Amino acid sequence: MLTGRAVLRRSMRAQRGRILAAAALFTGYQAGEAAVPILIGVVIDRAVATGDAGALPVWLGLLAAAFAGLSLCWRFGMRVGTLAGVRADRELRLAVAARALDARGGGALLPGEAVSVATADARRTATVNFLVPHGIAAAVGITVAGAALLAFSVPLGLLILLGTPPLLLVVRLLSAPLERRGAAQQERAAQAAGVAADLVRGVRVVKGIGAEAAAMARYRRTSRESLDATLHTTRAEAGYSGAVIVVNGLFLALVALVGGRLAASGEITVGQLVSAVGLAQFLLAPLGTFGEITAALAAGRASAARIAGVLAAPAAVTGGDDEVTGPVSGELVLTGVRGPGLSGVDIRVAAGESVGVVVTDPAAATALLRYLNREADPESGHIGLDGVGFGSLDPAALRAAVLVSPHDADLFEGSVEENLSVRASPTADLARVAPATRVDQVAEALPAGLASAVTERGRSLSGGQRQRVALARALLADPPVLVLHDPTTAVDAVTEAGIAAGLRELRAGRTTVLLTSSPALLAEVDRVVFVDRGSVVATGTHARLMAQNPGYREAVLT
Amino acid sequence: MSTPPPGNAPLPIAAPERTRKLVWALLRPHRTQAVLAAVALLGAAGLSLLTAPLLGGVVDLAASRNTGAITGRVVLLALAALGQGGLAFGGLVLASRLGERVLAELREGFVDSVLALPLERIEEGGSGDLTSRVTEDVAAVSEAVRQAFPTFVQSALVIGLTLFGLLALDWRFAAAALVAVPIQVATARWYLRRSGPLYAAQRVAAAGEQQQLLDSFGGAATVRAFRLAEDHVAAVGRRVDTTNGLVVEVTRTQTRFFGRLNSAELLGLAAVLGMGFVLVDARLVTIGAASAAALYFANLFGPVNSVLFLLDTLQSATAGLARLVGVIDERPRAGAGTGAVPADGSVKAVGLRHAYVAGHEVLRGVDLDIPAGSTVALVGASGGGKSTLAKLIAGIHRPTAGSVHLGGVALADLDPVALREAVVLVTQEVHTFAGTLAEDLALAAPGADADAVRGALATVGALDWALALPDGLDTRVGAGGHELTVVQAQQVALARLVLADPALAILDEATAEAGSSGARVLETAAAEALRGRTGIVVAHRLSQAAAADLVLVLDRGQVVEQGHHDTLVAAGGRYARLWAAWSTDRA
Domain A1-153+291-316 classified CATH 1.20.1560.10? Predict the structure, then answer.
């Protein structure tokens, strides 16, 4: 079982070279930052105080070197550290994407949640790679500054080194309730933003029913609630800023008091006093870094655990590695299939036959489709292709032989033509498929014909256009077995009748299953199977069932 | 097709002068608070500058071995810290409260204006633009007001006052410090030129990646059915490479920015130290003053970096603000109607013509006469102009020629409120509002009580499933809540119609998405919702036409046949052929 810890470890190990290089560079940067106040003190001691004109350029030169060092180290440390982050980020995102689209399915997250795991959680996990070098460097910086302070004076050094951590602890204690309240406030603010975006997205509906005033009243209420929550936290936030200033200032005064007395008594030089004050300020940054890193590491671990949860989710269908061997003749046999709304369904579709399946319970129809597409396996029973059980076949290989196209099939970003040709078989011909599925009419109505862009999973097309493109895409794939679910619900009656005839002609001699209750389509198939209350209750031609089976009549008629 | 191409008349962006005026108008009622905040923050910045000279004093006293006087300076240091903390607290409280109030008024003004815009205007401008304004631009302005602006003001005050402090020590220290300024100005300009487009590209890339992931994950079943997983993972990889490439590019730009600022710091610091050497040597200042000057300058590094770095946050906030103000200014003046109220739900249209794009007419002269209380079905192939006719009668688009009268009053003479009370349009766009189901329905009739809401749901056959939701009518639905099926969402839309209770209802709903059994449910619901009012129905299923009082067959923007279903079937024309196709296999 994959754990969050393992995900995090793997992600860091792959980038360990970059992490170490960034740590070295950030250490150089910290050393430079610590050297600047020390060198200011030295310049004052060795040049300004003594009036030694020869010493000034030497020490200023060293100051310049320190600046150059810290600047370059930071610049390249940031770059290497960023790379260590984004490279890991890429691997994690692709791993999540590959898992979500895996042929065996499973890991039933809502699309929105999966997107958030692939983006936000991947980023938080990968950020650890960027932060660890900072942590290493901060530790080195503290050691260097501490050593310098202790070299000046043991009591002063101890005061600063032992005084700073409690100082930071006080600051953290001050900010802890703020973080909690901040989170609550952010939630309120997000809610207000959410309501606004939601109203704007639904503005056509709001205006269609004349609800402008009611909608505005609702938004104003949310916005005022968010404002009230924010006003409560501003006091705490400002209080925190003020307190940090006071605590830091008082500590600085204490350092000045002790250091000043030591300098006055000649135990340290004046320059060392200046350096000590500077270092006391410098130390706040690396010590503060530790606090931030602790929080980010916790977030990274939690995110890594969510990623692990997605990656390790069990598959929806198990077993089956066999390839589909030889040419598929296309005999489809369902025996005793049970599942939601299905209590033992037996259907035999002969190779090359076209069969309509009418299922009264929509849940049962959905379940049947999922089994045929191997999105799921039936609770019990058997489905076989040319005598081979679905369960023993590799799901991807099976789908090459049995293609299932649902009525709300998704299109993808690209042109209409790209969507059509996505799995087009060399044996299929757009010139025949386009008129048969009435996709030629779709192309005529679109501004750029087949080259028109499809966006938002096909939502840029009307329902009828989308449905016809999806149908043509399935027919162009020309699979040995084609399963279509309600392919014409969004088109008008004349178009539907034309498509029904076109389907028959295009699929002549190829196994075709039409899961629908549309009389126009059912009239064009060889045979109809009527599934009611979970099992097959009648079989025959559409005309015969219409004439003899009242239940069937009711199911397919308005 | 039947919708106008979006973005052919983009929504405006306000001119800087107009933006300033609006912000000023929002600030004016709070001006006392603004002045007090400024005074407090200035005081805090002033006190912060005492630290360096006081420390310099301690250095001087230590150099002269005057141990006793050190304590006095240290007490002053402590008092300065206390005063600075107190003033900063007061100033920040005042400033952030002011900012939050102005922000709230701004976002409310924006939403109010969007809701008041004519739909036609929204469609011309593209609703995606509005969504991005209400999300991204509001967020950019909020972030600037909450985070960037306080830091920016505090840092700017510290910088300004530090220059005064250096001047007070000796004017030559200030002159030496200014050596850094040309580099800083050049660096800031260099950065602003690059950062804006880079951040914009980053937002576009992030949105693209998000969309790709939603596409692929949302369509996972289709991806699997067509064995496209590899292609889609590769497409995600390309998107990730673009976003990550931009992250690297942003890092490079930022590190170069700070690298240049480092050289400015070095130059300035060396100049101040060198000046200290010269002035101490000439006995013009004390060592303490020279130390203080160096510390002053070193303390500027942080504030200068923040001011310059925040410039681009403020720049994008300013751009966002201009886009918000642009929409606020677009708010139409209140109703231009004559105050006339339609007598009933009858509809009369004469010579209606409409073109979304000049020269490409979608409607080519349509006449209608619909008595109050009757139901009319619009029939015909897609692209025939059915939806456009529906929108013209609903007053959402103005016809290019011709007129529509509603209950004896011309649409053009109705003010927006009266229009919406008389006509309700339910379109194919299913939007369930985020919030509870009861709140969603209350939008249509804010005063409706629980019984009326239940009654409306019962009318459209939705009460059973609504009560069966996890929390009944108080279940959260819409974005982030319980997901309704397409049929349920469309039933909710019809229940809103029942609650709004207009004289004329126009239905152009999406039975298409519902599958055949869902379509039947919706057909019944629509028939119930139309009871007792005039109804115009864009009929996707001919059973709807068969039940209507009048059928209009539209083809290429014209009414080619009209009459009762039986009459038209008997006449053996276009409608009869449609009906034959529809009913053959149903017999």
Answer: yes
